[in-house]
Here is the input.
Amino acid sequence: MVLAKHLSQRRSVTTQLREHGLRMTRQRRVIADVLQQAGEHLDAPEVLRRARLQLPGLHLATVYRALESLKKLGIIDELDLMHVNGHGHYYEARTSKDHMHFTCQRCRTVFEIQDPLFETLKGQIVSRHGFTLRVARLELGGYCEKCTAKAKVEGKKQAASA
Amino acid sequence: MVLAKHLSQRRSVTTQLREHGLRMTRQRRVIADVLQQAGEHLDAPEVLRRARLQLPGLHLATVYRALESLKKLGIIDELDLMHVNGHGHYYEARTSKDHMHFTCQRCRTVFEIQDPLFETLKGQIVSRHGFTLRVARLELGGYCEKCTAKAKVEGKKQAASA
DNA sequence: TTGCCATCTGCGACCTGTTCGCAACTGAGT
DNA sequence: ACTCAGTTGCGAACAGGTCGCAGATGGCAA
Here is the structure.
């Protein structure tokens, strides 16, 4: 099942690449696989690290070039995750259901959120403005439930000691 | 009217800074004013250029430090605008009504979009997950209405010549 | 199956956007 | 006015990402 899924996705990636005059190379295949199997958002160095398990000579520049191509084809999405760790970017394979990302600015956990209202909102924007939508990125930042509680406790301590 | 608005906002900025142990300096005041008067999203070098009209010796590093402080206080927001021009960031003063940004990846025009559904969606996320929401950034990319039409024409040309 | 060539890769140098360390300066409380 | 923690200008440094090039390789045609 999982294999079949990957094969079918791979074939479609190959086709999509060809439609844009691009080739399916070993490097691009491995990089796309890494992202599809990860499920999670990875940064470029992490993609490199994982891809090198299968392709030891792979270079970071190639990873960036592949990510760029896959992004243009809409196969992967680029995220910032509120820049909680430097100014780098994160990448993840696009799935059928688009989701949002909430990043806790205290513990740095990233939560993936789905809400049908997101689809509704996107649809409304497209139909109202006549846009062709290719990417939609909703990123949220703040405190997660746990950290909201912890921050409240700390706030009281600080107030008491003052 | 405009002046009064600025004065009131400035006082509140000063207060907010003080609550965090920060001072209202000439530099921060000018930088905050530039952003509030611009209305539009500006990148750091553009903020520097405009602020230097009032404060010629201002340094880019100071601009970055001020933007960082104002961002932490929630007075301004940081945007990527789909990185249509390099990897820099854009900044804008936060207003009462949060809005979304659609960037045309062909002509690079940025459209600001408001939709009450955005507020609803944010509210729903907060209430469902117990998050404390501090920043919400919805960035969209694709083709604007004009460019969608142009791309269609070009697509036909290409198909005909092939 | 081989040959061909446009596309792609590894590599290191490079570039852009942002941050840092430090000495001098300054806002704002007393 | 005095004080001093917080701030600034400055240049050097840093991180993330891009580029140019020479050699390798996909994948089409014969």
